Amino acid sequence: MKIVVISGSPRKNANTQVLMKYVFEYTKSKHQETKFINLSEGQIEYYRGLDIQYNETTKTAARDIMDADVWLIGSPIYNSFFSSALKNLFEYIDYKKTSGKVAGITILAAGNIGFTNVQTLITQLLSYFRVITNPKAVFLTTESVSENSITDNDTRNRLKEMVDETLEIASKLHQN
User: Fold this and answer.
1) For 46, which DSSP code?
2) Which of the two ends of the chain, N or C, has the fewest CB atoms closer than 10 A to its terminal CB?
3) Residue 93's domain is classified under what CATH number?
4) Which residues have C-beta within 8 Å of that of residue 36, sequence separation ≥ 6?
5) Domain span including residue 13
6) Are the CB atoms for 163 and 72 separated by under 8 Å?
7) Cβ–Cβ contacts within 10 Å for residue 153, how many?
8) H or E stretch including 74?
9) 131, 71 Cβ separation under 8 angstroms
10) Confidence of residue 176 (pLDDT cuts 50, 70, 90)
11) pTM score, two decimals?
């Protein structure tokens, strides 16, 4: 099973990146074919149309997403929406190559507001790509991260549970 972990924040010292690096390390310990796309690194170009030549990092990220069986996506909430950098990344994805994939979602906000709205928006985006989404998203506040590390075991356990449940859904779907 091929897995891609996506950190959807474009900010250099993003809390989302801290969470998704943890998800990546945990997932990679279970499945070696796990790749990490970190939008904080700023190497994914802005989508400008089909006839444009994009850098290798951008092309590789799109290919890794389309090749993966499972997507583990983390996004911050910005202005009651998921990050525009994450939306930009999905502009490169060919919906004809994504049907039947499975996704898990982690959403990070400054306070306890807007989680289900953003979960719905991400799920709608993934529905366009015909991706089956784990209905149990992880909602976290920025209090979960301090000094570039996760602050508590409950957060770690919830992230692990999301990974395990998403991989279980994918495994069951691919058995049939």
Assistant:
1) P
2) C
3) 3.40.50.360
4) 4, 5, 7, 20, 21, 24
5) 3-175
6) yes
7) 8
8) strand 70-78
9) yes
10) low
11) 0.95
Structure tokens at 6: 């996506």
Q: Which two tokens stand for residue 113?
A: 């507001």
Retrieve residue 137's tokens: 């998203």
DSSP code at position 69: S
- Tell me, what's the pLDDT at 150? 96
Q: Measured between alpha carbons, how far is 157 from 163 in angstroms, rounded to an integer?
A: 10
CB-count exposure of residue 141 (10 Å: 0-12, 13-18, 19+): middle
State both tokens at 133.
């989404």
Assigned token pair, 48: 């400008």
Cα separation, 25 vs 166, in Å, equals 16
Give the count of domains, the chain.
Answer: 1
Least Cα distance to 27 among 64, 60, 65, 72 occurs for: 72
Residue 39 pLDDT exceeds 80: yes
